[in-house]
Amino acid sequence: MKIDPDTKVDKTVTINQLLKEVYRFVEELEQQVKGNLHHLKQGMEEGEETVIAQGQYSRLND
Fold first, then answer.
1. What pLDDT is attached to residue 58?
2. How far apart are the C-alpha atoms of 47 and 62, rounded to whole Å?
3. Which end of the chain has fewer CB atoms < 10 Å from its terminal CB, N or C?
4. Furthest-apart CA pair in the chain: how many Å?
5. Residues 23-39: tens digit of each pLDDT
6. SS3 letters across 8-43
C-alpha cells in the first residue's frame, strides 16, 4: 500500500488499512497451506497404498 506523503491521514486510518492488508495476506497464505497439505496428504495416502500393495505382493511370493 502506498500513501502519498503529502496527504494528511489519520494514523488510525493508516494502521487499519495496513492491518486489512496483513489479514488478507495471512488468509491467502492459509489457503495455500491448506491446498499444499491436501496434496501432501493425498500423496502420502497414495504412497501408503503402494507400500501396502508391495508388502502384500511380497508376502504372496514368499
1. 63
2. 23
3. C
4. 81
5. 999 999 999 988 888 77
6. CCCHHHHHHHHHHHHHHHHHHHHHHHHHHHHHHHHH
Q: Cell numbers 491436501 label which residue?
A: 38
The distance of Cα 13 from the centroid of its chain, to the nearest Å, equals 29
Q: Cell numbers 494528511 label which residue?
A: 8
Long-range contacts of 12-18 (CB under 8 A, 24+ apart): none
Across 8-12, 48-52, 58-62, the highest mean pLDDT is recorded for 8-12
- Quote the cell numbers at residue 26: 495471512
Q: 495496513: which residue's cell?
A: 18
- Decide if 23 contacts 1 (C-beta within 8 A): no
